[in-house]
């Protein structure tokens, strides 16, 4: 493992000379500290989540992942907690799992995160208040659009019930051929 | 007739969108309001560098500034002198400054404190559970908590001395905390 | 030196674009040959000037000339040459330069191809493209100038954004997207040209049909390529996150697709003139909107490059285009009125109208969802998020409806049909569709939407096969040739129609792959000790060792995992984490093992830094994902076929007296008369 250790040393050097950003707030530790931290972190996780888990645990994992997929990772841009491998997200997913294991419903878990982070944490807005617009307007647009289209189709087919307008469309000849073709095929 | 509706549809959809976008450019997408202002500060159980266990309830009756920070965080360095001054200005019996070390090791944090000073109490939050409980996005973030244990303000990003003085003075003056309407900013 | 060449070239392009705008529009009105020629040569000139700027920037990048502002921003001596060359589009100024160059190239190509045409539209279109160019070259000359001088000259730079130098697809996906985006300027320019000139018949549509199909194909490939890139780089095993910037590329795709269909109604029946103009103008506005989203940083997005002054300027340009277009449409409204008339509700025409309704509703929905956080914040100051759960919920039903129409529309004849014929057309496809749905059920699918998707996909596939069968049979009879020859002949003689069917087939493949991967994906995240094995479906994943490698521009830590498929050794996989000096977080490189059935996708999540004795890995089994890329390629193939010049074009327009046989005439009628490109 000496090759590995040397490599990681080089990594620390690389990161130490790297330019540091100076935003108002920082959301994630730099690679440098992540690595150090992991070195210090005990490895009980490895035993804790062994490769062999029983079905019940697996079901809990799946439910936790489902709930976490509806939560927004606070330190990423537009990723869900389940997708992000940021440290905070991993821990948030663990919180979700623990709360589910303690008997909370998925809704209660969501409510907990909303009470701490605000509604922003939910990737799908709650269907209440002004948020109803984001659900209602598309449906409304579709329905209104459908009725307009229906009205227009009726109007246009009505217009065609009489004689085909003599001044008609530019490719009337072609259309007539098409019609003839249909007629021939029918016979 | 479709045409007539169309003529109105485009401006009807487009003008509000343009206005929105114009408005939207003026704001900072990083600043997020906290829903916790005005609510009781969640309890925690954290271990100090000295090995003592500390609960939120232990601090009842005092004004508390809960400061999430880390040694790897550059803005925390800007903020640090303000915290040093805070510690110097008020007595521990009135105002408690409590540093919560976020995503960092004790060794790193102590090295930082040795370099920049600051001997107020610090606790470790290795599981980040307290950070999540307080809805922390990143560091630094500071919570101003009244004597009754109610959060009056959450400040995202480095605090300024004006903000700290104003917040602490008003919390000391009015024991029943007035829920901060604005959850960020707040300096007079 | 390069700073000077670049800045002068851009100034020259700006002047050229001004000249093209003035001479194009004045020449269009006065029909003075000297002005028309001047517009053409100005358009050529803009292209040469922009090419000079483009080449100057590439030379600056490749020679690491850090005195050039943009190079100092994105270049670094350690970045591999390939990524240095493509870092042109890794940051704001460079991407606008690239955009401007493509715009200039499209303009020159339009001018060159039509140099002998005496159509009234051409100078107008050149003028409009010049006008759009004014905006982009103006940005490059002013607020987004990539050629600014840096003094003192730095010895090295930070290199491009690590996410954008982590996968070779970065060399493909943005250019495709830009070619699509910018290509849509061509039909827009002709549409505005039609409005300006008052020549509002079908000419502008015919003249731009192939341009539009080509731009649409580039955009499609760009979108699929972007999905592929996300999949290979971002490490969460997904390909589409409904990120605002992804939506921004999807929105014009939706309206452009609607446009490609609805123009057929106008070509054939002279209807929907205002609608088609509005659709292409709306598409162009959405292109600008999408560019604005990525440049303004207004919405949270992983892809956006935020920059101060660009946003407001962009917004002003969008508003200007919108106002000018509306004024033009209002001004020409008397000439746009075309009495609509249809023979029957059950006809291909009305299917196109429904198709447009769904596409526009889809566009509206995605636009609403993308901007909704802003709306809420403007109204009551709350912050909400609208993410994948919302978009999936609303887009699946709309997508399924469109899939259904894709089966009905092409199989219905124009004008009218009879109930018996209807029955004959749809009985086999319906049976195939039902069979596909039942097969899905038998294989264990119990969710509603996937079952509906499989059913409709079967239905659509059967109608496509049926169309091909009919075409081949008719051709065999008329030309007396064998089936393969007949197939070749219908593909080349009626490439627009059959190319379109191939595109449809590609879309079906993509939709089915989306349904399968969305429904059957499963994953596990486990920390493994060295030599430890975990099971995931048919796969076994064993952690062998960790390794580390120092590369000039980054430091890589990777894990080697042995893979077993149903117990048999199936090679190794090496997901890694890359540490870049200018990134706070490591950028992962997932490892993907693809088969036609499914992908095994490994991401290294964490590792034991001291000993290398354990690693946390996320393993995902992603069914059918390779079919997304295959479907994308089918779409591209179909589109290429559809834009090929028609063999034997220049064939005289059909007259009612020439009816060689029913099918032959049908085939001729299907194509509008020879297209002036």
Main beta-sheet annotation of chain A: none
- What radius of gyration of chain A results from the CA coordinates? 31 Å
Spatial sequence of strands, sheet with the most strands of chain B: 2-1-5-4-3-6-7
The most extensive interface between chains reads: A-C, 93 and 110 residues
- Beta content of chain B: 15-25%
Task: Give the tags.
B: 188 residues; alpha/beta; Glutaredoxin; 7-stranded mixed β-sheet; 7 strands; 19% strand; disordered C terminus; C: 4 domains; 4-stranded antiparallel β-sheet; 11% strand
Describe the structure.
- The complex is a heterotrimer of chains A (187), B (188) and C (677).
- Chain A contains eight helices and no strands.
- Chain A has helices spanning 2-17, 31-40, 44-48, 55-68, 87-101, 106-117, 132-161, 172-186.
- The radius of gyration of chain A is 31 Å and the shape is elongated.
- Chain A starts with a helix and ends with a helix.
- Chain B has 188 residues and is of the alpha/beta class.
- Chain B has helices at residues 2-25, 74-89, 106-116, 129-133, 161-173, and strands at residues 45-48, 53-55, 63-69, 95-101, 121-124, 141-145, 151-156.
- The model of chain B is unreliable at 177-188 (pLDDT under 50).
- In chain B, helix 2 links the parallel strand 3 and strand 4.
- In chain C, 62% of the residues lie in helices and 11% in strands.
- Chain C folds into four domains: 1-164, no CATH class; 167-338 and 355-389, no CATH class; 390-519 and 628-670, no CATH class; 520-626.
- Chain C has 21 helices and ten strands.
- In chain C, helix 15 packs antiparallel against helix 19 (495-520).
- Chain C has 677 residues and is of the alpha+beta class.
């Amino acid at each position: 493992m000496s090759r590995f250790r040397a490599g990681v040393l080089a990594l620390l050097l690389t990161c130490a000379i790297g330019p540091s950003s100076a935003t108002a707030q920082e959301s994630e530790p730099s690679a440098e500290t992540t690595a150090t931290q992991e070195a210090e972190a005990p490895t009980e996780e490895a035993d804790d989540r062994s490769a062999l888990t029983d079905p019940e645990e697996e079901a809990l994992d799946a439910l936790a992942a489902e709930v976490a997929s509806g939560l927004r990772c606070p330190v990423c841009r537009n990723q869900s907690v389940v997708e992000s491998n940021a440290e905070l997200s991993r821990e948030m997913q663990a919180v979700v799992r623990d709360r589910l294991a303690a008997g909370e419903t998925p809704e209660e878990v969501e409510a907990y995160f909303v009470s701490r982070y605000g509604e922003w944490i939910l990737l799908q807005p709650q269907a209440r208040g002004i948020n109803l617009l984001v659900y209602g307007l598309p449906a409304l647009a579709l329905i209104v659009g459908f009725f307009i289209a229906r009205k227009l189709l009726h109007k246009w087919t009505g217009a065609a019930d009489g004689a085909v307008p003599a001044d008609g469309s530019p490719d009337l000849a072609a259309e007539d051929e098409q019609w003839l073709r249909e007629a021939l095929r029918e016979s | 007739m479709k045409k007539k509706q169309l003529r109105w549809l485009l401006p009807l959809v487009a003008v509000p969108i343009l206005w929105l976008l114009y408005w939207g450019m003026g704001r900072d997408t990083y600043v997020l309001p906290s829903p916790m202002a005005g609510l009781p500060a969640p309890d925690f159980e954290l271990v100090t560098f000295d090995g003592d266990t500390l609960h939120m309830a232990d601090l009842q009756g005092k004004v508390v500034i809960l400061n999430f920070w880390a040694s790897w965080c550059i803005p925390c360095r800007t903020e640090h002198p303000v915290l040093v001054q805070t510690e110097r200005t008020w007595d521990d019996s009135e105002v408690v400054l409590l540093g919560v070390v976020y995503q960092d090791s004790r060794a790193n944090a102590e090295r930082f404190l040795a370099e920049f000073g600051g001997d107020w109490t610090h606790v470790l939050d290795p599981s980040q559970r307290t950070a999540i409980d307080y809805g922390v996005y990143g560091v630094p973030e500071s919570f101003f908590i009244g004597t009754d244990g109610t959060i009056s303000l959450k400040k995202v990003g480095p605090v300024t001395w004006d903000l700290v003085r104003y917040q602490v003075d008003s919390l000391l003056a009015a024991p029943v905390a007035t829920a901060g309407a604005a959850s960020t900013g707040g300096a007079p | 030196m390069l700073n000077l060449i670049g800045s002068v070239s851009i100034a020259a392009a700006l002047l050229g674009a001004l000249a093209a705008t003035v001479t194009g529009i004045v020449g269009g009105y006065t029909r003075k040959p000297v002005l028309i020629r001047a517009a053409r040569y100005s358009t050529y000139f803009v292209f040469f000037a922009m090419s000079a700027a483009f080449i100057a920037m590439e030379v600056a990048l490749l020679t690491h000339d850090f005195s050039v502002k943009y190079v100092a921003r994105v270049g670094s001596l350690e970045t591999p040459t390939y990524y240095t060359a493509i870092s042109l589009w890794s940051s704001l100024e460079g991407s606008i330069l690239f955009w401007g160059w493509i715009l200039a190239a499209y303009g020159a190509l339009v001018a060159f191809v039509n140099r002998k045409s005496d159509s009234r539209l051409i100078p107008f279109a050149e003028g409009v493209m010049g006008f759009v160019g004014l905006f982009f070259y103006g940005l490059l000359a002013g607020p987004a100038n990539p050629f600014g001088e840096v003094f003192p000259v730095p010895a090295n730079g930070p290199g491009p954004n690590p996410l954008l130098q982590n996968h070779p697809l970065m060399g493909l996906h943005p250019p495709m997207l830009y070619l699509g985006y910018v290509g849509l300027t061509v039909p827009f320019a002709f549409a505005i040209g039609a409005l300006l000139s008052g020549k509002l018949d079908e000419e502008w549509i015919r003249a731009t049909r192939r341009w539009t199909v080509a731009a649409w194909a580039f955009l499609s490939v760009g979108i699929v390529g972007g999905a592929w890139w996300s999949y290979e780089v971002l490490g969460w095993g997904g390909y589409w996150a409904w990120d605002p910037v992804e939506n921004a590329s999807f929105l014009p795709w939706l309206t452009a697709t609607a446009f490609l269909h609805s123009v057929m109604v106008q070509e054939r029946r002279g209807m929907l003139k205002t609608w088609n103009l509005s659709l292409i103008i709306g598409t162009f506005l959405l292109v600008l909107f999408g560019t604005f989203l990525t440049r303004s940083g207004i919405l949270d997005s992983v892809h956006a490059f935020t920059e101060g002054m660009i946003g407001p300027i962009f917004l002003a340009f969008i508003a200007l285009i919108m106002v000018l277009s509306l004024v033009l449409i209002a001004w020409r409204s008397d000439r746009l009125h075309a009495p609509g008339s249809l023979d029957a509700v059950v006809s291909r025409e009305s299917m196109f109208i429904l198709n447009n309704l769904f596409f526009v509703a889809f566009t509206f929905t995605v636009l609403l969802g993308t901007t909704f956080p802003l709306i809420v914040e403007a109204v009551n100051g709350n912050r909400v998020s609208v993410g994948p759960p919302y978009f999936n919920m609303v887009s699946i039903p709309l997508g399924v409806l469109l899939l259904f129409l894709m089966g009905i529309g092409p199989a219905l004849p124009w004008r009218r049909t009879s109930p018996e014929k209807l029955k004959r057309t749809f009985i086999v496809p319906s049976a195939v569709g039902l069979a596909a749905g039942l097969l899905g059920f038998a294989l264990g699918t119990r969710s509603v939407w996937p079952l509906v998707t499989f059913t409709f996909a079967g239905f659509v596939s059967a109608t496509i096969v049926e169309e091909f069968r009919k075409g081949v049979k008719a051709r065999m009879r008329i030309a007396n040739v064998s089936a393969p020859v007949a197939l070749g002949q219908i593909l080349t003689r009626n490439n627009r129609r059959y190319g379109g069917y191939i595109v449809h087939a590609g879309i079906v493949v993509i939709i089915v792959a989306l349904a399968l991967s969305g429904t059957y994906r499963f994953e596990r995240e486990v920390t493994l000790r060295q030599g430890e094995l975990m099971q995931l479906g048919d796969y076994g994943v064993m952690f062998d060792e960790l390794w580390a490698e120092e590369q000039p521009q980054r430091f890589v830590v990777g894990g080697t995992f042995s893979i077993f498929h149903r117990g048999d050794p199936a090679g190794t996989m090496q997901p890694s984490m890359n540490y870049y000096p200018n990134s706070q977080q490591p950028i992962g490189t997932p490892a993907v093992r693809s088969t036609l059935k499914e992908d095994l996708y490994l991401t290294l999540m964490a590792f034991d830094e001291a000993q290398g004795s354990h690693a946390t890995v996320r393993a995902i089994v992603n069914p059918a994902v390779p079919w997304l890329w295959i479907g994308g390629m089918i779409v591209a193939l179909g589109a290429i076929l559809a834009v090929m010049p028609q063999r034997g074009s220049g064939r005289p327009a059909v007259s009612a007296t020439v009816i060689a046989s029913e099918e032959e005439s049908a085939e001729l009628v299907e194509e509008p008369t020879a297209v002036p490109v």
